[in-house]
Amino acid sequence: MIHASKRIAGGAGLAAVLVKRAPALELDWDTRSKSRFSATDSTGREIGVVLPRGTALRGGDVLVAEDGTLLRVIASPQPVLQVRHCAEHGSPFDLLRAAYHLGNRHVPLELQPDLLQFEPDPVLADMLRRQHLIVTEAQAAFEPEGGAYGEGAGHGHHHHDHDDDHGHAHAHAAAPAPARKPLSIPVKAQDAGHVHGPGCNHGHDHGH
Q1: How far is C-alpha 189 from the geometric centre of its chain's CA atoms?
Q2: Per-residue pLDDT reduced to its tens digit, 109-164
Q3: Fewest C-beta atoms under 10 Å: which of 33, 46, 126, 173?
Q4: Mean pLDDT across the chain
Q5: Beta 2-8 vs 46-50: how paired, if at all?
Q6: What's the pTM value of the predicted model, to 2 decimals?
Q7: Which helix (H) or strand (E) covers residue 62, if one does?
Q8: Which segments of the chain does DSSP mark as H helices, in order?
Q9: Can you tell me the distance from the alpha carbon of 121 to that of 128, in angstroms, rounded to the nearest whole number?
Q10: What's the rounded Cα separation, in Å, for the pair 187 and 7?
Q11: Distances, alpha carbon 105 to alpha carbons 2, 91, 108, in Å
Q12: Diameter of the chain by CA atoms?
């Protein structure tokens, strides 16, 4: 068994041609979320991965084996549930509400502009369908959000880190905004028509 204990997030700094030629480790999320596991790469070699506790691998990461060879990490397709809003009976805001409820349940959740994705759970699927959301089964790579400050946050995107010792002077106190005239906004009475939403109890079968 060959061991790999160094991770290069997103293959940063490596020549694309080297990464492309490297053997691949195709792994589902359950495996990539572990810091210690064994797997077989695309050349048939058995790889023992040993990473710092709490490390999660993302598709596109590169591992360095003890013999110096590189290993491409690929997020393999796996069973997932995909959640989309219903254009006929709802709005895109329903997807935001669903993300809130799933987050309250600490469900590993992947956020995309037009859908949510999480591992199969029939109870949660039924809850979302009752909220007029479209829930479908699929086989897809799964890259859930990390914690806001934790390992793998934000799908491995590296934004500017605000380090207290970086020497940049940030103007955190913004200048006062100029005074503005108050706006007069007409208030429209709520439409008493048919409102679709959680608990509306209209008994519709949307056939999603």
Answers
A1: 39
A2: 999 999 999 999 999 999 999 999 999 999 999 999 985 434 544 443 333 333 34
A3: 173
A4: 79
A5: parallel
A6: 0.67
A7: strand 62-65
A8: 16-21, 29-32, 93-104, 122-130
A9: 11
A10: 56
A11: 38, 23, 9
A12: 72
